[in-house]
Specification:
It is a single chain. This protein has 2 domains: 4-58, Leucyl/phenylalanyl-tRNA-protein transferase, N-terminal domain (Alpha-Beta Plaits); 61-216, 3-Layer(aba) Sandwich (Aminopeptidase). It is globular, with a radius of gyration of 17 Å. The protein starts with a strand and ends in a 6-residue tail after the last helix. Helix content is 34%, strand content 26%. α3 (91-103) packs antiparallel against α4 (113-124). The protein is built from 7 helices and 11 strands. It has 219 residues and is an alpha+beta fold.
Length: 219
């Protein structure tokens, strides 16, 4: 399947993804288009030195809040109260740290100036979230993402201290369970996410969950 080219005058996403999960390139990156994208299970992605692309994996990797796995070692971390966790207190720093942590890795980072700016604006409009994990009053790790109604789309996480990113996801899942969120979207499989309870769900099931969750968008 060919990849659609988007522009400011044509921003209609195609219905299906190709074999590599990318469905479109180009377009504009702002609050309106991001909300439209995530409401359709789509997210933006940048390869270094390439045009922005839009992705919608056919099979989605998610965590159901009730199925979060807490290992014996993480239970010990929780019981020792090594970390303090806050929500939505420092979104801009969390996304920036996620970017910096990946800039010098082999894979590089998709988080560039455009992404940082667009997601900070999304957060300011009430459609973003962050989890901050602190140790001794310093950021030790965290994650950020997009919130639409009762849907949570986790974008990226990082840690400076071992177990801090696990603490962020576990805390997010516990909060999501208490507040009746339907799922935490993780997009793609990793061993790290599998250890926390991640699982694949079908294209149809994912969109059914999104359609149910976005009914609760209040602003």
């Amino acid at each position: 399947m060919s990849v659609y080219n988007l522009n400011e005058n044509n921003f209609e996403f195609p219905e299906y993804a190709d074999d590599e999960n990318a469905i479109a390139i180009g377009g504009v990156l702002n609050t309106e288009t991001l909300i439209k994208a995530y409401s359709n299970g789509i997210f933006p992605y940048y390869y270094p030195d390439e045009e922005m692309s839009w992705w919608r994996p056919f099979n989605r990797y998610i965590i159901f809040p009730k199925n979060i796995k807490i290992s014996h070692s993480m239970k010990s971390v929780l019981n020792q109260k090594i970390f303090k966790v806050t929500f939505n207190q420092n979104f801009s720093e969390i996304i920036h740290k996620c970017r910096k942590k990946r800039e010098y890795t082999e894979e590089g980072t998709w988080i560039n100036d455009d992404i940082e700016s667009a997601y900070n604006k999304l957060f300011e409009k009430g459609f973003g979230f962050s989890v901050e994990v602190w140790k001794d009053d310093k950021l030790a790790g965290g994650l950020y993402g997009v919130e639409l109604g009762k849907c949570l789309f986790a974008e990226s996480m990082y840690y400076d201290i071992t177990n801090a990113s696990k603490m962020a996801m576990i805390s997010l899942a516990q909060k999501a369970l208490a507040e009746n969120y339907l799922f935490i979207d993780c997009q793609f499989y990793t061993k790290h996410l599998e250890s926390l309870g991640g699982e694949f769900i079908s294209h149809n099931k994912f969109f059914s969950l999104i359609n149910e969750g976005i009914k609760y968008i209040s602003h």
